[in-house]
Amino acid sequence: MLASLFYWIIPFVFILGSAVVLHEFGHFIVAKLLGVRVETFSVGFGPRIFGRRWGTTDYRLSLFPLGGYVKLGGDDSNAPIEGATAQNIPAGERFDLRPRWQKFLVMVAGPTMNILTALAVVFFGALVAGVPVVPSSPVVTQVRAGGASESAGIRPGDRIVSFNGKENPSLERVYNDVKLSPEHPLPLTVERGGERVNLTLTPQKTVEEGERIGVIDFAPDYGALPVLVGGLKADYPAAQSGLQVGDRILTINGEQVRDDVSLIGLVQKYKNEEIKIAYERGGQRGEVSMRARMESDKAYLGVTPEIEVPYQSAGLATAARYAVSRNVEIIRMTGAAFSQIFRGQRSARESLSGPIGIARASATAATRLGWAGVFGMLGFLSLNLGVVNLLPIPVLDGGAIFLLLLESVLGWIGVRLSMTVRERIQQVGFVMLILLMGFVITNDLIKEGTNFFRRPSEKPSVTQPAK
């Protein structure tokens, strides 16, 4: 129990703490460079737990670790959260007396720092580990029997030339659109025998950590890829047989396992027979036998397979392009998910997570991928934190930037926002923030309860390939 709690807390504190500190450091360093006094640099909100004052700045850790703030001298726009400003600040160090362009630079610096962090994580990761080698035009090599792809008419040898409205889609784009669209029809066009064939794929769904996701059940032309045991369900045949996380699965009943799709297909093929799995662990080969567990006429071993996509070394330019493309794709996916929520195609309760959800995702990333997973999660969270903070919502940086732009426009016609109006806007934003925090925390608790009481047949046994 204590070890499990340790694996939840340490990655969560590191990832969320780093994202928050980097965000606030952006505000802090630009304010300092412009000569604006920083009264408080706080990680978290609410009452001060402990800290230290250096110069005119109080560096503190506050009670509620769901964000943070930098209190600027002369700025009372967020007084309900940050407290009132000191009264003895020289005019030359007051934020409220600075020109709008300086205020804009200070406000935009936090989200910018988060976005740069997300780019840097992927960039340096690509320099160290390389970039994945993926086919530019996905060609289908295998289709799972009885799956959604077979029902849609997808065949081995088809080249996907259009998917969900995107011409010449990358394989990552195809995977992500499928993941976002469980049980929703997706148009695609394949090239078959020199002709284009229009099809419609409706991905089957699975549930992963309380969220419904679409499952891709065809394999692209990677060639034979190592298939690893990424996770094991307790009380399922694979775990009981002695397989361990990290084992490389070689064959099932003597047939080569080429990828995660072929693994699933072979399990279904031999669902009524004894299944012998040959594996490799630490350079040594072994074999285990088991019988699949049948649930709704489907066979399950309780294995979460992960494939190892081949990587190639990358130079500065290649790493930079990859970092930009990866982060743009994450933003696109996030925007698509929110669009589905507003259109009623996706449940906000399933899609939005708070601190408990972040802790679970952080622990999963750290357990499965080690430091690569931790920094990957940091980049993902930083990017989302940076983008969300640019939204024109009061209390967020985007809200402050929007007010600056509004004041600039109103100034052209001789109108000025009073401090009372500004305070009312911030109060509305503060209430919205409190309600949102309450929703995501309650949502996290419901998800955890649902995960705990979910029947085994409702739990997922496969995930998308590791990247």
Summarize, please:
With 467 residues, the protein is an alpha+beta fold. It is 45% helix and 24% strand. The C terminus is likely disordered.
Detailed description of the structure:
The two termini are 30 Å apart. Strands 12, 13, 14, 15, 16 and 19 form a six-stranded antiparallel sheet that branches. The protein has a four-stranded antiparallel sheet with strand order 6-5-7-8. It is elongated, with a radius of gyration of 26 Å. It folds into three domains: 1-34 and 98-130 and 309-412, no CATH class; 134-222, Pdz3 Domain (Roll); 223-308 and 443-467, Pdz3 Domain (Roll). A hairpin with a 2-residue loop joins strand 9 and strand 10 (211-215). Helices cover 45% and strands 24% of the residues. It is of the alpha+beta class and 467 residues long. It has 13 helices and 20 strands. It has helices at residues 2-33, 79-82, 100-129, 148-152, 171-180, 237-241, 260-269, 316-342, 348-351, 355-369, 371-389, 397-412, 419-453; strands at residues 38-54, 57-72, 131-132, 140-143, 159-163, 166-167, 186-192, 195-201, 204-208, 211-215, 218-220, 227-232, 248-252, 255-256, 275-281, 284-290, 293-295, 298-300, 303-307, 311-312. Helix 3 runs antiparallel to helix 11 (371-389).
